[in-house]
Batch of 2 targets.
Target 1
Amino acid sequence: MHLHHPLKTRYLSVALCTGDAVRVPVWILDSGVPGPALLLVAAQHGNEVQGSEVIRRFIEKAAKRSLRGKILAVPFANPTALRQRRPHLNMGPEQPYADDRGHNMNLTWPGNPKGNDTARVTYAIDQAFGEEATHVFDLHCWSVQMAPMVLIDDEPEYRDLARKLGHRFVHVRSLGTVTLAGVLHHRGKIGITYEHAGQYEVNELEVLRCLRLVTNYAKAIGLLRGRLEPGDEPVLFSDETDAVTVKSPTSGLFVPAGCRLCDAVMKGYRLGHVLSDVNLRTTEVASPVRGYLRQYGAFRNNADVALTGRHPYVEKGDPLAIIVCPESDGFSARRGCKGGKSQTRPA
Ligand SMILES: [Zn+2]
């Protein structure tokens, strides 16, 4: 492969509490031309690995393009948690995410050289790139039933940028003061977080979707040349839309009908069916509104660390889908539909 720009691999060496060291490999792609410095970080949580592949492909693509500024990339921000195949350091089986004992990396920024082993790694990454970066894109993954989403702070500049990314769902919230995006935001830089759908896996469609997004990010800030790639239309902001939760009409096994997250569903569109464990009747589940799928499938807490959380057995009233309704429809979920239209037929 011919590269216009040389890709350098460097290693951040971090001294741990035990006296051992861990090495964090990083990539630097420097055009040598003044411009933005985009910091890409993935796998702060060791089970959230889709962004690592997105970074690899984006770097490969960017190296062959006309570039201004530089890309600073940390594909595996938390190597020890990655090797343990867990969200945070030293977690046991089925231990909830929130039970982090101070090791949730994205709550440790800007790190601490005398802190616990996670805060030390955070500190090393921040020391290496935190000042130089003008923009950050922090790649995470959440449960496979939840649509991939861009997370931004509530600022007009962020909204403009988020629109250009061309991704269906944008969640607007405070980025906080201890997350990577939040810390850089408070330093006057641009910090955007992203959640892929699906942990413990690398899904090709998820990778392609995010690759388009990060390419548009790079173009929007002038790092890459060229026109923005066409994306989702419309882009839906969480504070400008309503959402309807479709609840299970009965207990049983929810069998999804193969709808895809982020896609449009029409009113009456079939979402799946529930096979009752009580009387073996099949109940169809349809969308009560026209909108876009933000959540789909049997879903419960800790679906991200325990397989029981992903089991398709649902109880009556459990959420089966969340559908976001564009404001342009003049629809209000608050006064609108309460639940899914469903009909029963023998199994
Ligand atoms: Zn995460």
Target 2
Amino acid sequence: MTAAVRPPYRVGIVGCGAISRNHLEAFAALPEAVVVAVCDVDADRARSTAERWGIEHAYGSVEELLAAGVDVVSVCTPHPTHEAVVLASAAAGAHVLCEKPIATDLAAAERMVAACDAAGVRLGVLFQRRFWPAAQRLRAAVDDGTLGRPILGHASVLLHREPEYFSSAAWRGTWASDGGGVLMTQAIHYIDLLQWLMGEAVEVHGHIGTFRHAIEVEDSATAVLKFASGAMATLSASTAASPSLGISIRITGETGATAELSEFPEGTDGRVTIWARGGAIESEQVHPADVDPNVDLAAINGQLIPHHTAQVRDFVSALSANDGTGREPAITGSDATAALRILLAVYESSRTGSPVRLNQTATQEALA
Ligand SMILES: NC(=O)c1ccc[n+]([C@@H]2O[C@H](COP(=O)([O-])OP(=O)(O)OC[C@H]3O[C@@H](n4cnc5c(N)ncnc54)[C@H](O)[C@@H]3O)[C@@H](O)[C@H]2O)c1
């Protein structure tokens, strides 16, 4: 049973750092929601955010924000803090939209999903790239048989980060406070796209390394993934590329057709840059010469606002369906847990040197 609330929803935003702007812009675009409170452990930051956006309340803790009475909480804090904020929000009966990654360990992610279920509140997790029109087109091509069931996939995530990226926020670049490197922070979006297009992953073999950045977590990773359907995919990801080549995701379906989705420069809308089907190849240039390949973080985040808005709109409309048909948001806590499970398996595989079987529902026939 899901908690029934009615629009306009009272929204609280927890964490007033870089990505909070995307949430503030997204909710501002929706008549069904109004941001009534923000909070940050840096109370001055909460206050200045509230002033800038004309928000009624600014607090220094999530407890104060929840006591003000909110229907929805957006979680925009560093990775390991997500769990405490989600658990407190669920206990207060608020629906939660949490930034990725859902958590940095599986047990925490599972506790978050279970707590929201038990409290009857919805849990959504941001993977806004699923809302690119081009990503939706690829997914439709899987579903309508143009690609058909995927058999091969590849995600190439070749990004550029300056050293200041890691020094600008104290939590970045360490196992304890970031939970991982390029996999946890950037590539998780594309791991999610792979699983959304290709289905449930059942086995992962991977490696991580740190080559260019002075950080303890990985700046580069590779992995081979096997899916319950028998499909296979490879992943390579790095924040050490200079210049960045952006992201490309290629899917070959059982029809033999292949489609490629490209994001270049990082943060811009994904485009379908290759369609190989029916004896013809349609392609579009992925890396035009007049584009600056190394985009700064504020520009990347700014370009993502329309897709954050699309996901926030979906989340809010899922709540509106509560008292009638009721529905889950497009991207649930369980979806985000599955993406986390894949990337944690890359870490484990890299540590042990062995493939990691994911505890899922694949049959031996499917894996054969
Ligand atoms: N979806 C995307 O594309 C995308 C893009 C960027 C960041 N993110 C995610 O958003 C989250 C935040 O990233 P960011 O870049 O905005 O970080 P940031 O460091 O700029 O901001 C985090 C803010 O949270 C505050 N904070 C820390 N602990 C808190 C707590 N317990 N309660 C309240 N406030 C707290 C900090 O003081 C800071 O102001 C991360 O999970 C990150 O991965 C997602």
